[in-house]
Amino acid sequence: MAPIRTTLSLAIPLFLAACGVQAAQAKSAFLGCAEPLATPLNPTPVFAASAAECADACTAKGSKNSFAYYHSTSVDSCVCSPMGPDEVYDIAYPAGGSCADYEVAVYVTRSGHSFVSQNKSRRHLDRMERIALSARDVKADCPNPLQACKVKNDEGYQCIDPQYAIDSCGGCINGAFGDATTTPAVDCTALPGVASGGVICSLGQCKAYRCVDGYTLQGNTCVKA
């Protein structure tokens, strides 16, 4: 039997994340600043004294809270939601990394899915949130809702959530492990015109919030200007 190419320290965080249990070191990514009206309907209010506390609080709430919204001058200054900001409104990314008092700071949390804020973070998340096992004589066993997907140029598989995996959004990018059928999947970070850290995978669909120069944002898609 081929050896398992992972360690218990990697397997445990993945299993906990799949069960909705969050570690104290859970991270979030700053998406940008938006108008208050961009906040989705019926969010869950939580107490937070700062944008950073808001992001942490929404992360700790569970896997259904994919976004944190912080508006310092609002009665409910911090709210959590599984929904992203309304695509009708633009998402601005300030050079200083902070929003004005009249704006809502939007964060993508780590609850239950992976995301990318920069290349270094992506490599880190790949190590921390995936289990790679040898396929020979090994039966795929991924905790719900994760799916066993083939590893490129390897006989192993990796456990991902195709509903939120940014580089395998909607399915297994290299094919499902032990299954001849394939489900269409997209690497959201490779889409044309998408700015670094400006795209997420949500419910199996890529959603862009920032585009590079020469592209404009139209309905969460970067279109060449």
TrEMBL record:
Name this polypeptide is given: Protein CPL1-like domain-containing protein
UniProt source species: Kwoniella heveanensis BCC8398
InterPro entries the UniProt entry points to: CPL1-like, PriA/CPL1_fungi
Residue ranges occupied by any Protein CPL1-like domain in the UniProt entry: 157-222
Signal peptide: 1-26
Protein origin, superkingdom: Eukaryota
Listed PROSITE patterns: PROKAR_LIPOPROTEIN
Record has Signal as a keyword: yes
Keywords, comma-separated and alphabetical: Signal
Family annotation (Pfam families): CPL1-like (PF21671)
